[in-house]
Amino acid sequence: MIPQKIKDHLNEYINQEVYVQIAIIKGKEKISTKSSIDKYFNTNHFKDLSEGKPYDHFIAGLKDKCLGKLKNSPMRDKQSDDKIIQELQKKLNELNNKELDNVYWEIETGEFLSSEQIQELEDKRNDLMNELDIFKNKDNAYNILMSFCKSYEELCKKKYPEAPLPLEILKSTK
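Given the sequence above, the corresponding structure tokens read:
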């Protein structure tokens, strides 16, 4: 199972990216949020999203941080006061070489994932790609984008309660 911190981190990133792009369209065109989403469907950003590229980028970053690459690192035994380095050293020293080849470190959250969890991320990517296929069901894709934007506004309300929210989705869904 993918750690919740990883899910939250990835969802926040995707939600923010989608929100900002739609808000830019709305601001430039002076049109409704719905019309902005319709225009967003025709952008390269949406094309990349619907092809799973945010997940691909995230997964590639994880694979680049396989602990197996650090098997012979002199850092394994160096003294450090840095808590993150200490945690990494602990992991490096408690796992055998075969296990190290199956552990990936997500730096932003400090979480460690296995190959199986990366496969889960790839499955989530595939599900998202299927859900965003506007040729199969444009209404479904629209609803997903709206849910991304709504989630981002909810997060912003918690973190930055005074910040303006250009799409005003929370106001329109009350």
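The two ends are 34 Å apart (CA to CA). Try to locate this feature in the token string yourself.
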